[in-house]
Amino acid sequence: MIQLTEIFGDIVDNVSAKVEFPTDSKINQVYYIYGNPLEVADRLMNDFKNLKYDKYPMVILFTDITSTRGEIGYDSTAQVRVAIVNLTEQNYRAPKRMEVNFNPILFPIYEALLSEIDNYTVGLWKPFDTGYDGVEHTVIPRLFWGSAETDQKNPFNDRLDAIEIKMNLKIYERNC
Q1: For 66, 101, 138, 147, which has the most beta carbons within 10 A of its beta carbon?
Q2: Regarding beta strands 128-129 and 58-68, do their DSSP bridges make them parallel or antiparallel, or are they unpaired?
Q3: How many helices (H) and strands (E) does the chain have?
Q4: Cα 131 from Cα 77, distance rounded (Å)
């Protein structure tokens, strides 16, 4: 079975090397973590507790991944959920969040992440069938993660802006 956690680690490393952040920011890389939401929240709170500002921006791969198998030519089709997160300030309004977080940091990571998924190869093997138009996905910009309307709360202790991505990735069989 294909290890998406390892593939996404490579993809995030590539994204980190390609995205240019504002020169006035202290960002020097994109971090990566994976696990179920409770485990990720626990790791962010405990494993990284002394690194409040040095662990973001971050790509989170939620590992409650549903895979459908049996289609000829494919290992599986995986329902993948990813979040790209960065610290924010509680008192920021939507225009300030766009100016400070989304436009200079989160959207460039989002675009680079989708491009890397679309173009990722391991040797001669291209693991994902992304079609002609790139990665088909649903994107949800979350200005201050959490919503009173849906009763969806931020599962993490830090104040975060986020872009949530949901995609179905067709994964080719590895023939090499």
Answers
A1: 101
A2: unpaired
A3: 4, 6
A4: 13
| Each residue's pLDDT tens digit, 61-96 | 999 888 888 888 788 888 999 999 998 888 999 999
DSSP 22-37: PTTS-----EEEEE-H
| Nearest-angstrom CA–CA distance, 14 and 117 | 10
Total count of domains within the chain = 1
**Cα angle vertex 91, ends 85, 95, to 5°?**
70
Per the rule left: phi > 0, alpha: psi between -120 and 50, beta: everything else, 134 is left
* Degrees to nearest 5, angle at CA 100 with 154 and 49: 45
Question: How far is 99 from 88, CA to CA, in rounded Å?
Answer: 11
Per-residue pLDDT at 2 exceeds 70: no
Q: What is the pTM of this model?
A: 0.88
